[in-house]
Structure formats: structure tokens, C-alpha cells
Amino acid sequence: MLMKNNLFTDSEERDIREMIDTMKKFLVKQYADGKMLRNFHPKMHGCLKGTLKIKKNLPEHLKQGLFKDEKNYDAWIRFSNAPPKIQSDTRSSGRGLAIKVLEVDGPVMEPDPMGIPSQNFLMTTSPILSAWNIRMYKKAMYAVLFGFIEQLKFALHPRHWRSIYLTLKHSKKHENLLSQTYFSGGAFRFGPDLFVKFVLQPLQPDLGYTLEDPKSDHFLKEQLKKDMENDAHGFILGVQIHEDESKQPLENTSIEWEAPVTPLAELILPAQDFDFPERMAFGEQLEFSPWIGLLDHEPVGGINRARKLVYKEMAAFRKGL
Hints:
Structural class: alpha+beta
Number of strands: 10
Helix content: 25-40%
Largest sheet: 10 strands, antiparallel
């Protein structure tokens, strides 16, 4: 069940501090001769402009926070690969899509470093987070960041086998970033009475690889550039609603929710060029966190409790603050 007041315990705080120290050590080692990128999702395919269009006539119980009124919001959308080291797009991996909805109305949890009130959504192609508590998250992160020997040590422990299985199950090869379904992983409050997970479903799920040349190490970006040259694309943002703890657990992120997706908004990406130095630099500077957003959409669960400290401190560390 959900921890009261969504606070972390003393032991969780110790694990989080150790996690942050581990991530800092990795960045110092990985980028000893250059600018630090993110610990995870360092390979950015592009940062695109978009519009989030809240649907009209939503049911009254879903008119909460960002979705309380029919309205259009400007947004930035960052596409990425999940692994901590930059690698070829041809390999199996999780992909990320982060959304920053601008000029939102209402009380926010944390101010956006941009100086604009925003609602962030951090999503990946996996419907679950395979490390389902902070202690497991810490151990799995260390193994992922520090190479084969540490991964072998992690793999030898039977308690870690389910996490490894789930990671491999949801790590896939992808042909096109615009045809994927993306998930929030953790759960969120949705107004005073509901808990939800967010799901982003593509308007064109059949899009694939259409370039004439064989796939390069950066083909996902090349395909995205081609698709966005002349045509608009988009997604439907919806929610799965928590009704039964056995089918939609709030703390255990390794269990995929059994619940229909209710559409709330449309995310439209107009035709655009995004592959130029100023835009790429802007995308690298953007900070995303599930805690940058409206109080009505407060993150819940252990992994989200960890992200509150980790994201904020690691963003400052990358920027030398």
C-alpha cells in the first residue's frame, strides 16, 4: 500500500544518498574529459515543439489539475535512449519520451528552472520499472553503471532474477520513435481522490523504418527527422485509474497495471526541423522531473520518492552547481 504522506523512511534516505553518490562517481568517470550528460537517457534524438490539447467534455471526476479545462498548452518533447552509455540505436533498449507542458495553472510542487510553471511527464517504452523498491533500485543502478563484473555479482543473487528478467523482457528494438507507446512507470495522484498511471499512445502505430540506407547507429534520429520534415504527428495522452491494489499496485512498479486507458488529451507535433545546434543545446539543458508539476499530480510510491532527491541533485551536479 501507499506510504502515508508519501515520505521516505530513514533507511530509504540512506539508500538514496548512496545512489546519488554512485551516480556522481559514474559521471565523473564517464565524462572526465568533457561535458557531463544525464546518467540515464543521455542520448537525445531530438527536442521538438508540440501542443497538448486537453479534450473537452471529460467526465467530472477526471477534470483535475492540468485536465480541469479544455485548453491548448505549448510543450517541449525530448526523445532519447534509456541506457547510461551512448550506444547504437540498432541495439535492444528502452526509449524515453519526456514532456514539459508550459504555463500551467495551479499550485506546483517544485518550480521549473526555466522560470515557467510547467507539468512534466517522464515516460519510457516499458510499462513497468523492473526495480520495484528503493533498495533494489540502488543495487540495480550500481550494476548497470559499473560494468560486467558488477552486473555478474547482481545476476548471481536469486532475489534479483525477476528484476533482470523484466528488464530483458521490456528492452526491445524499435523501428520508429513516433509509433511507440510510452508509460509513466510510477503512479501519480490525480486530484484529491484518484491515483493513476499515464500512458501515451501513438496516432500512427504502424510507422516504421522508411529510409533508403541501411540502419546506422543513429537511425532513430534520422528517421525522426525524415518523418517530421513535412507532416505532423502525434499521440493520445491517457490514464489508467487505480481501483484495485491487487491489479494496480501503487508501490510495486514491477507489476503491469491491468486497467483500460482513458484518453484525456492529444499531443500534436507539427512538421518542424529540430536538428540544429541551438535546439540540441536547449534540449540538453532542459531539466525534467516528475516532481516538477502541479500538486494535483503528485508522484507516489517508493521509486518516485527516490526520484525527488535524485533528479534535483544530479541536475545541479551536471551543471556544476
